[in-house]
Amino acid sequence: MKIIIVTPEGELYNEEVTSVVVSSANNGEYGILPGHLPIISTIDTGYVKMTFEKLTYYVVIVNGLVQQVHDIITVIAQDAYIGESKEAAFENLFAIRKARIEANRQRNVELAMAENELKKQIKQTGAGNL
Q1: pTM for this prediction
Q2: What domains are defined for the chain?
Q3: I need a labelling partner for 47 at 20 to 30 A (CA). Which of 88, 93, 105, 123 fits?
């Protein structure tokens, strides 16, 4: 079987696998093996466990769609983070989210400072006074 995982940032994973387990908070857990009937499912927040021979990887999925047709599994996700264990994948997710929150906070501070500076300049020049 082949699994392809994509996000808005591009392709995260595109490899052959021997089995897949999909777990979603709202939809539960199910396995996909070669020859599986076609399936389409959503993942709110969960993970995809991929096994190839003795290797196992986990990809945390946030807001995704899983489709399996003719032994090709396609996962389209808003966010996806890979790890060698479920815990490592979730740690990657939390670390990236924390960094994004901090970057957003910093942008908001910079925007507020720029807005205050603009108001100060407008007041000093008398622009906008009728």
Answers
A1: 0.68
A2: 2-97 (2.60.15.10)
A3: 105
